[in-house]
Design brief:
The structure is a single chain. It is built from no helices and 10 strands. By secondary structure, it is an all-beta fold. It has a single domain, classed as Jelly Rolls, CATH 2.60.120. The two termini are about 30 Å apart.
Length: about 120
């Protein structure tokens, strides 16, 4: 009898695990939030990286729980509560575990409309 050998995301993998998905953006500004990671019920880890040389970036989940229920989360650069600041020049922020499966959005510190963002979304 043969042995089945497979890794996460391999052709014979028998789970929802798919390794990492990399998303790249170069259009962030300070006024219009951009969805940088869609909702993913299998997500176990998400990493945000800010490669901009000097501008900070704000990332945040689509919903907050201030009232015990899902409420739209809409922080801004001027009022950043509900968001997580990632410093420019290579700042990175990673979340692991539960409660991170919803959509994530990002804003840049300046309205230049060319802010970069790199996201690694993993089911493992």
């Amino acid at each position: 009898m043969g042995i089945i050998v497979a890794g996460p995301g391999a052709a014979l993998a028998f789970s929802s695990a798919s390794g990492g998905k990399l998303y790249a953006f170069n259009n962030l500004d300070a006024t219009t939030p951009v969805e940088v990671a869609a909702s993913n019920p299998s997500r176990q880890r998400i990493r945000f990286h800010n490669p901009h040389a000097s501008q900070n970036m704000l990332v945040y989940p689509q919903y907050k729980q201030n009232t015990g229920a899902n409420v739209a989360n809409a922080p801004t650069i001027a009022a950043p509560g509900g968001g997580f600041l990632i410093y420019g020049n290579g700042g990175t922020l990673e979340f692991t575990g539960g409660e991170i499966q919803g959509a994530w959005y990002a804003l840049m510190e300046s309205a230049s409309n060319n802010g970069p963002c790199t996201v690694l979304d993993s089911n493992t």
